[in-house]
Each structure stands twice: as C-alpha cells, then as structure tokens.
Amino acid sequence: VQLQASGGGLVQAGGSLRLSCAASGRNFRINDMGWYRQAPGKQREPVADITSGGRKNYADSVKGRFTISRDNAKNTVYLQMSSLKPEDTAVYLCNADYVENDPYGTVVVGRVWGQGTQVTVSS
Questions:
Q1: How buried is 12 (Cβ within 10 angstroms: 0-12 exposed, 13-18 middle, 19+ buried)?
Q2: Backbone angles phi and psi of 87, in degrees to 5
Q3: 21 burial level (CB within 10 Å; 0-12, 13-18, 19+)
Q4: Measured between alpha carbons, how far is residue 89 from residues 7, 19, 46, 73 in Å?
C-alpha cells in the first residue's frame, strides 16, 4: 500500500488550502486515516484523523479551522485548511492504517505514510 499526498503550497495568513492523500495498492482495505505535521526544529505532531466510519479527531490548535474528510470509494483523505496562520507552516504528512492480503494469502496489518507536502503560510 502506498500513499500519495498533494495540495500543499504557499498562502497568505487567513487563506485556505486543501490537501489530498490517496492510497493505492492491491487487495487492501483502509481503516483510520490521518494527518500529521512537522515544522522545522519541532517534533511531528498529530493534526487530525478520521475512522472508516467517519469519526473525527482534531488537535486543539486546528479545531474550528481545519476539516478532515474522506472518500472511502477512492481511498482518499482530505484536509481542508482555512484561516491559516504562520504557525501552521510545516510539512504535512498523511498516514493510513491498512489491512492487506499479500500474494501468499497472508493478512498484513500496518501503517503507511505519505511523502509529505509543504505548507507555508506567510504573514
């Protein structure tokens, strides 16, 4: 299973961006999906996550400004970011918990990460 993230960029404070992250592979099912971010010199921190049933969690720092959603048919998770602040500047990484049936019939359970997409918010 692989994840491909897109949608980052440069935006002024108060602006909006939408991130996407699509899972691909064979014979797999995606469970929880989420977004983390890592700013220069700081630890990676969770931003938001969503279960396959649609239950959502947000970091306090983004509540009311960010919205996570997913399209299960497309195995894609989205992060709509609004009212962006300079402190939101970071590399945003998506992840997904998956269950996969490998070619030998073995069930593999794991977590996969996307490559990260840069979000820069100017003041």
A1: exposed
A2: -70, -5
A3: buried
A4: 14, 13, 14, 30
pLDDT digits (tens, 9 = 90+) for 57-70: 999 999 999 999 99
Q: What single-letter amino acid sits at 117?
A: T
How far is 114 from 110, CA to CA, in rounded Å? 13
For residue 122, the model assigns a pLDDT of: 97
Going by C-alpha positions, the residue among 86, 65, 73, 81 that lies closest to residue 19 is 81
Task: Write down the pLDDT at residue 71.
Answer: 96
Here the tokens at position 95 are 């992840």
Encoding tokens for residue 4?
Answer: 């491909």
d(Cα 59, Cα 119) in Å, to the nearest integer? 17
CA nearest to 77, candidates 28, 30, 27, 11? 30
pLDDT class of 103 with cuts at 50, 70, 90: confident
Amino acid, single-letter form, for residue 31: N
2-6 vs 17-24, strand pairing mode: antiparallel
